Structure formats: C-alpha cells, structure tokens
Amino acid sequence: MPASAGVVSSRDNPHFKRLRKLAESARARRQSRTTLLDGPHLIEACLQAGGELRTLVLSAHTAPGLADQFAAALPQVRRLVLSEELFALLSPVATPSGMLAEAAWLSPPRPSGPALVVLLEGIQDPGNLGSILRSAAAAGASAAVLDRACADPWSPKALRGGQGAQFFLPVEESADAGTWLAGKALQSVALSLEAETSLYELDLARPTALLFGNEGAGLTEALRAAASMQARIPMPGKVESLNVAAAAAAALFEAVRQRMAR
C-alpha cells in the first residue's frame, strides 16, 4: 500500500491540511465531492456500497491488526499515519477510533416501487439529519430531498449519525422545497403538531413525500400550505412533541407497515 514516510506530526503537511479542510468545511467537501469517514463501520459501509476510498488515515497508535486488515483489502489506497495530536484534530468524536478514510461521494440509484420521499426543511443539527437519513434508508425510501437551510449530509457528524445511510439513499441537496413539490405527482404530507388528521388515517402506500421541518420552528407556513395535506403523529402520553428524527422514523415505518400489508 502506498504510504507516507513514517508518522506525520506537522500541521503543515499538505495531506493533513487538505484532510482538515474536508473535516471542517462544507465548501471543501462540495468542491472535491469527497468527505471523511470515521471508523471501520463507515469505511465498510462505503466499500459495501461500491464506494471509492482515496486515503486511509491512521493514528500512530491504531491497533496493528485492524490497520493491516484494511491495508490488505485496499492495496492501491494511499496510507497516511498521523500523530495522535493531528489525528484528534481530524476526528469528529472525543474518543477517536484510530481510523479515518477520505472517500468520494456516491449517487446510489433510486429503488423501484411507489415513491417514498423525505423532504427536509431547515434541519440544522447534523446528528438529527444523519439519523433521519438512516431511518429513510432502512425504510427503503426513494430519496431524501434537503433544502438549502439543512446541514451538510456529508459532514463527518452527519455521516456518523447516518451510519453510512448516505451511501445507500439518494440524497438531493439545496432544493427549493416548494418548487420541488410542485413538479411531482405524489401526495405530500406535512407533519405538524397542529394538524387534526392522524397520520395513521392516511394511505401511505401511495407515492408519498413526508415533510419535516426545523427542530425548533417546524415547517414554514408556506411549505405547509404547499403540501397536499397535514397530519400529526398521535401522542397519548404527556410529552408535547417528538424529536424530528424520532417523528421521521415513526412516519416512515408507518408507511412501511402499510406497504407490507398490501
């Protein structure tokens, strides 16, 4: 495997500087269409989906067996070994795994069958965004459509929250949500606490877009008005609302339940 000479400990190293930009800058990720994957699980998910790794990044104290396992499987991938200090600057977690990878974005094909789309407006927490994408991928959704105010789905934190969902779920970024809806022949359901109709009363086996809004403000009034209908998730307990990622999971798997019943 191609490798750097020894352990890199200087912040001026050009490979380290480029990787740090990927870790910190959505613009750098968009321009290069690459990102950083944290840990063996995400790296394996990328490879399973047919993804391309550009650089395998190891901490100087990465377990030799783990490093050798990936080195043997990826003989053509550049290998970069960083000091613990530099590796910690790239890692998105407090306790680094000891292994990162620079990977190219993927554009997976849309699955067949009636459309099931999640349309996201202003989801700003990358962990929430990743969790929604993970639920959508697990539910076999056709796509996730993100407006311009959403967090970057290819950021290390969103990737960690999605656990590799981005490699299997088609993701459309920077969409104008209202314009996107206007051009699609499917029912659109705006999830809202104020809605009178229960989500469970709807036919979600039809081609459907499920709309979810910002963690604090919810969907904008304009997008709620643009939707075919509004619905709420029944909550007989004493809490007032669900986290948006939990709400998305509940709605997506109600659609799965209905579609499997057909």
Descriptive account of the structure:
With 262 residues, the chain is α/β, with parallel strands linked by helices. The protein is built from 10 helices and 10 strands. It has helices at residues 14-24, 26-32, 40-48, 64-73, 84-90, 126-138, 156-162, 177-182, 221-226, 244-261, and strands at 34-38, 53-59, 78-82, 99-104, 116-120, 143-147, 171-175, 187-191, 208-212, 229-231. The strands form 2 sheets. The protein has a 6-stranded parallel beta sheet. A 4-stranded mixed beta sheet has the order 1-4-2-3, sandwiched between helices. Helix 1 (14-24) packs across helix 2, helix 6 runs parallel beside helix 7 and helix 6 (126-138) runs parallel beside helix 10. The termini are far apart. The model is unreliable at 1-5 (pLDDT under 50).
In the CATH scheme, the class of the largest domain would be: Alpha Beta
Which range best describes the helical content: under 10%, 10-25%, 25-40%, 40-55%, 55-70% or over 70%?
25-40%
Task: Provide the gyration radius in Å.
Answer: 20 Å
Biggest β-sheet description: 6 strands, parallel
- Strands in their spatial order, largest beta sheet: 7-6-5-9-8-10
What is the straight-line distance between the termini?
A: 51 Å
Indicate the multimeric state.
single chain
Summed up, the helix count is 10
CATH topology of the largest domain: Alpha/beta knot
Counted up, domains total 2
H and E order: HHEHEHEHEEHEHEHEEHEH
Mean pLDDT: 88
